[in-house]
Amino acid sequence: MPSLGIIADDLTGATTVGALLARVGVDTVVLFDAGGVGELDGDHEAVIINSDSRALPGPEAYARVHHATQDLVDAGARLFSKRIDTTCRGGIGPEVEGMLSVLGDDYVAVVVPAMPQSRRIVVGGYSLIDSVLLARTPVAVDVRTPVTESNLRRLLAGQCSVAVGQVGIDAVLAGTDCLKAALVEERAAGARAILVDATSLEDVDTIALALVELGWKTVCVDPGPFTERMAIRSGVVPTRVPQERTTRLHCAESDRGTVLVVAGSATGTTNGQMNELRQVPGTEVVEIAIGPLIGEEAAFTAEAERAFDEVTRLMNLPTPPRVVMLGLESTLSGRVVDLAALERGAGLEPGTGPSRIPLRLGEIGRRAAVAIGCSLAGLYLTGGDVMVNTCKALGTRGLGLVDYVIPQADQGVVVGGPWDGIPVVCKGGLTGTPQTAVQCVNRIFDENNRSSCQEEVKENAAVSA
Predict the structure, then answer these.
(1) Are residues 339 and 379 in the same domain?
(2) Phi, psi of 415 (to 5 degrees)
(3) pLDDT (tens digit, 0 to 9) for every residue of the chain, 465 residues total?
(4) Residue 241 lies in a domain
């Protein structure tokens, strides 16, 4: 029975908050849909549902979150969180109201959109991303969910039917007594959602402590740090000392097997990371053309079979590859692909082609995993839609979170399906430095080696017994 129930609007966000909880020893699992809550094995302390609702119209997003919240209530959750994007993309208002509609009038949504460890802070109600106003970052021209408003109170008020209050950084810095008074004042004025500034993890902890002292029934609305602090401060979940894990840039003699990389993000950040990784000895690249992923079934089947045959050939070499990098041509080259022209060539309605790309790339990823077989050391998935579709193609029910390599590059294991227990690292397209992919792959090898050693110890113990 989970004590903490979280709903995230995409898989990247789900793994981000899950990794934060896992780092303080909370047993956390991410599910790809709400229907899996009742089918979970084990007694997980935190359950995160990926509603996959970020780009949905408001009423549809509301409905998905409403139903997912009811599933979490039925499962026994006592603390609730609506995980939001660090850049506030998507329909935050409808999703928060979808959660509140289940929990009742005595709940209040406290919105703390800061993630200081990723240089996301809120001051005076304004969102700053690495010292740049939100609306002046690339998220303002995001293809699916652009954000053109830096003032988060105005942003939320434009999406919510409930009143939105605000508490500034001065009240947070003044300490819990002053902060509690400011929160009470906003709620007395009729606010059902209250935006609170934060510039550091200390600020986030102060907010959590104030709310616990007030005894409010709170919906945490944040990218993860506030939820983690509320879970700990409220005592809803126990904390344990997590295992220490290292981050390295160099290959090790202990690295065994082959890591499969599936890369579908078209950002410059991901392109730079893939270029860095392909320079590491033992990395083999299989480039996937975008045209067949958008086109008719026969073209896709031919491209999928070509990729499978190439991975099979690589695995049959005298020295199999350390890494198989399966990447879209745009991801690997950094060139912009004219998707509209590809749609016209395939006879598709404008805007319908892009959704096929991650779905079909996920299926190619599954076939590549089959070709690698028992040598598969783990998976590195980059790009939110690619992560979801690859995991679903693999037949998994969810991900068990373990840690993060860096914030928002999250480490876990596959839950359910033929690859149950395989290490996986998931990363959004905008996260990290040029070395991040190398670090993530090395972490997978370390985790695979750790798991292999643990299994060997168990086998030896069984023989001795």
Answers:
(1) yes
(2) -115, 115
(3) 789 999 999 998 999 999 999 999 999 999 988 777 877 776 899 999 999 999 999 999 999 999 999 999 999 999 999 999 999 999 999 999 999 999 999 999 999 999 999 999 999 999 999 999 999 998 998 878 999 999 999 999 999 999 999 999 999 999 999 999 999 999 999 999 999 999 999 999 999 999 999 999 999 999 999 999 999 999 998 878 777 888 999 999 999 999 999 999 888 899 999 999 999 999 999 999 999 999 889 999 999 999 999 999 999 999 999 999 999 999 999 888 888 888 888 888 887 788 899 999 999 999 999 999 999 999 999 988 899 999 999 999 999 999 999 988 999 999 999 999 999 999 988 789 999 999 999 999 999 988 764 454 334 433 333
(4) no
Is there a single domain that holds both residue 37 and residue 155?
A: yes
Distance in angstroms (rounded) separating the CA atoms of residues 31 and 47: 7
| Angle at the Cα of 195 from the Cα atoms of 142 and 139, rounded to 5 degrees | 10
What CATH number corresponds to the domain at position 184? 3.40.50.10840
Alpha-carbon 59 to chain mean position: 23
pTM, 2 dp: 0.88
Domain tally, the chain = 2
Whether residue 62 lies inside any domain: the answer is yes
Alpha carbons within 13 A on the beta-carbon side of 187:
18
For β-strands 164-167 and 28-31, DSSP reports them as unpaired
Whether 240 maps to a domain, the answer reads no
User: 229 and 284 share a domain?
Assistant: no
Give residue 419's domain range.
258-456
Same domain membership, residue 195 and residue 94: yes
